[in-house]
Design brief:
2 copies of one chain form a homodimer. By secondary structure, the first copy, chain A, is an alpha/beta fold. Chain A has 8 helices and 13 strands. Chain A folds into 2 domains: about 110 residues, Tetrapyrrole methylase, N-terminal domain (Cobalt-precorrin-4 Transmethylase, domain 1, 3-Layer(aba) Sandwich); about 120 residues, Methyltransferase, Cobalt-precorrin-4 Transmethylase, Domain 2 (2-Layer Sandwich). In chain A, the strands form 3 sheets. In chain A, strands 3-2-4-1-5 form a 5-stranded parallel sheet, with helices on both faces. The longest helix of chain A is centred in the first third of the chain and has 13 residues. Chain A is elongated, with a radius of gyration of 19 Å. Chains A and B meet through helix 1, helix 4, strand 5, helix 5 and strand 6 of A and helix 1, helix 4, strand 5, helix 5 and strand 6 of B. Chains A, B: One of its GO terms (molecular function) is methyltransferase activity.
C-alpha cells in the first residue's frame, strides 16, 4: 500500500475558516509538518501530534521531510496557509514526489487570500480576475512586470499577493506604475486587506493613484478593480453585468 | 439596528468542503435563499429553515427577495455554490443593496472551483494565474477573447469556468484557438475536472491540442498550464520555481 501524504490548505488562520475536510485529515495524521507560523495557528487539540518544521527558505527540505516521515509508516500532513495549491507547497511536493514513488499525495484545498480578502472588501473579484505575486524571490521581476502589463491589457480585476517586504518596500508602487502605464486610469477603484482571518483584520478602499503611495506590510493582500469596478458604500465591487 | 444578510459561498457541494463559518451563519438564518440546485445540495438539517428561490435567469429578483425578507425582521442568507464573490451573487447583492440602506451585507467566502478543481488535478495554479468565464450571457464575447489573449501574452496559468453549454458547444475550441494564436504551444499541459466535490468527480490531463477537440459539459472546470507547467505522474503541475 502507498504511503498517504496530505497537502493541506488551512485557510487564512481562524479555525472556522478551515474546511471540515482539512480538519479530518489533520486529525487522521500522526505528523503535521509546516512553517512554524502555520503550526502555531493550529488549535490546541493538535498539540498532541508530532509537529515538525524547517526554517523559512528551507521549503525543499520541509517537503522532503514529509516523504521521509511517511516512509517510516506515519500518516503525514503538510500544512500551508490559505490554499496549498495557490503559492503553497503542492507543486513542490509533486516535484519531489518523483523520488518517492511509494508515496501518494492528496491536495486538500483551502480558502486563499484572494477569496477571503475579497469577502472583507465586498466583491472585488466578481468577474474575470488575475492573481499575481510581487515576490521576485523565485520569479524574475521582468516576468512579474509582463504579467502586470497583460492583466491591465486584459482589463482583469487583480489580486496582488506579497505586495511588500523589507527588501521590496517600493514594489507595490512599481506595480501600480506599470498598471497606470498600461491604460489603468488614476481613479481606478482599489482596496487592500491586512491580517485576513486573523487578529487585527483591517481594510481600506482607495484609488490606484492613492494606493501607489500607501505603505502596506507583508500581511496585506491588494485588490485592483477592473474598468467597471466601483466603490459602493465603502465596498469594492466588480460587477457581473446584470441590469439592475 | 441594521438587518443582517449573509452572502454565503457553500463550496463545491459536499458538506465537508463548506467552512464552519458558512455553516454557522446558515444555522443562524431564518431564511435561506438560492438557486434551487444549491438549496438541494444543503444537508437535511436545513430543511426546517424557510427555503426560498427564483428560477434560473431571475438573479435580480432572487437578490431583491433577500432584502425584502430581511426587511420583515428575518435573518437571511443567500447561498451560492463555490465562492459567493467569484461569479456569485455578492456584487449584485451590493448593487441592489443601494436601495435598501437599512440592510447590512456580509460575504462569507467559500472554496471556488479554481481551488477545488486544482486540488483534484494536482497543482495547476501554483503560480500567477487568471480565472476566465466563457459565458457570454452577461459579457460580450469580444471582451472574453481579449482576456484570453492577454492571459496567453502574460504566460498565466488559466482556470476556465463555464467552458460549454448547449448553446455554446464550440466555445472551448474557440478559446483554445485564441490561446494557440497567442503563442501557446500545442503541447501545453492542460486538464479538466467534472463534478468537483460532488458525485461522479472525474478528471483528465491532456495537451491543449487535445483539449481543443474534447467535449466537456457545463459542470466542468478547465485548467491551462503556463509555459513551465508539466504533467508529472498524471498530475498537472505548475511550478513555483524552487531548485529541486
Amino acid at each position: 500500500m502507498k504511503h498517504k501524504i496530505f497537502v493541506v490548505g488551512m485557510g487564512p488562520g481562524k479555525e472556522n475558516m478551515m474546511t471540515p475536510q482539512a480538519m479530518e485529515v489533520l486529525e487522521a495524521s500522526d505528523t503535521i509538518i509546516g512553517y512554524p507560523v502555520y503550526l502555531n495557528l493550529l488549535g490546541e487539540h493538535f498539540r498532541e501530534k508530532e509537529l515538525l518544521s524547517t526554517p523559512m527558505r528551507q521549503e525543499v527540505e520541509r517537503c522532503r521531510m514529509c516523504f521521509e516521515e511517511a516512509g517510516k509508516g506515519k500518516t503525514v500532513s503538510m500544512i500551508c496557509s490559505g490554499d496549498a495549491g495557490i503559492y503553497g507547497m503542492a507543486s513542490l511536493m509533486y516535484e519531489i514526489g518523483r523520488e518517492y514513488p511509494e508515496a501518494e499525495l492528496q491536495v486538500i484545498p483551502g480558502i486563499t487570500a484572494a477569496n477571503s480578502g475579497a469577502a472583507v472588501l465586498g466583491a472585488p473579484l466578481n468577474h474575470d480576475f488575475c492573481v499575481i505575486s510581487l515576490s521576485d524571490l523565485l520569479t524574475p521581476w521582468e516576468r512579474i512586470e509582463k504579467r502586470l502589463a497583460a492583466a491591465a491589457d486584459g482589463d482583469f480585476a487583480i489580486a496582488i499577493y506579497n505586495p511588500s517586504s523589507h527588501k521590496r518596500a517600493d514594489y507595490l508602487k512599481r506595480a501600480c506604475d506599470i498598471l497606470l502605464d498600461h491604460g489603468v486610469e488614476e481613479t481606478r477603484a482599489c482596496g487592500y486587506v491586512e491580517n485576513i482571518g486573523r487578529e487585527g483584520t483591517a481594510c481600506e478602499v482607495c484609488t490606484i493613484r492613492e494606493l501607489r503611495d500607501r505603505t502596506v506590510n507583508m500581511f496585506t493582500t491588494v485588490f485592483i478593480g477592473n474598468s467597471q469596478s466601483e466603490i459602493i458604500d465603502g465596498k469594492l465591487i466588480t460587477k457581473r453585468g446584470y441590469q439592475v
